[in-house]
Amino acid sequence: MIEVEELTKRFRRPRRRGHRIRGEAAAERAAVDGVTFQVAAGEFVGYAGPNGAGKSTTMKMMCGILTPSGGRVTVDGLTPSRQRRQLARRMGVVFGQRTQLWWDLPLLDSFDLVRHLYRMPTSTWRRHLDELANLLDLGPLLAKPVRALSLGQRMRAELAAASASTRPRALPWSSPPTTSTTSPSCAAG
Q1: Which end of the chain has less Cβ packing within 10 Å, N or C?
Q2: Contact 85, 65 (CB under 8 A)
Q3: Domain with 12 in it: what CATH number?
Q4: Edge-to-edge, what's the strand order for the sheet holding 2-13?
Q5: 8 A C-beta contact, residue 135 and residue 144
Q6: 95 by DSSP, 3-state: which?
Q7: Statement to judge: residues 58 and 85 lie in one domain
């Protein structure tokens, strides 16, 4: 389902002004250096490490947002950096610092806008949303504006939005730093 082999991402960092020696190249820093792991279908894993360890960078390469400097990543048989659009139809993602929900709208209206973005038929969307609302206990929250939800409620709503839009086979989820964990997780199905 998800295969990561010797994955590397390097970023060039220009030297500070006045500290560069003529002809010297910009410094490179490895944000991810030789990471290897697999996530089988149906498996749920945590990817832990300190701040700055490359967890979110790895997830961005798994989604096709960043291109690896080296190594290989495949998700559901696709290479994210080359097949990003195809992968987007099979994969949901939740980054804690980004939202798919509209702050001033009731949660249900936010979900409906997501449905329109993904061009999902109302009947399919309604079925998926009903399943997720039941699973994640969102029913009592659907009429509330997103701004009135607690952080935990918003994260459950984000998870529902990412899941209902595509019925993903993979769902990387990076928790915001204000929750009890700062470790990204990934579920594969």
Answers
A1: C
A2: no
A3: 3.40.50.300
A4: 27-39, 2-13, 70-75
A5: no
A6: strand
A7: yes
Please tell me whether residues 16 and 62 are part of one structural domain.
yes
Task: Tell which residue, 2, 22, 25, 23, has the closest CA to residue 12.
Answer: 25
Per-residue confidence (pLDDT) for residue 9, from 0 to 100: 95
Helix (H, G, I), strand (E, B) or coil at 120: coil
CA 105 – CA 121 distance, rounded (Å): 21
Sort residue 31 into left (φ over 0), alpha (ψ -120 to 50) or beta.
alpha
Are 26 and 85 members of one domain?
A: yes
Q: What is the pLDDT along the chain (189 residues), one digit of tens a residue?
A: 889 999 999 998 766 666 556 656 667 889 999 999 998 888 877 778 888 888 889 988 998 999 999 999 999 899 999 998 888 777 777 776 667 888 899 999 999 988 888 788 888 888 888 888 888 899 999 999 999 998 889 888 888 887 766 666 666 656 543 443 334 555 555
- Contact indicator for 101, 35 with CB cutoff of 8 Å: no
- Mapped onto helix, strand or coil, the DSSP state of residue 78 is strand
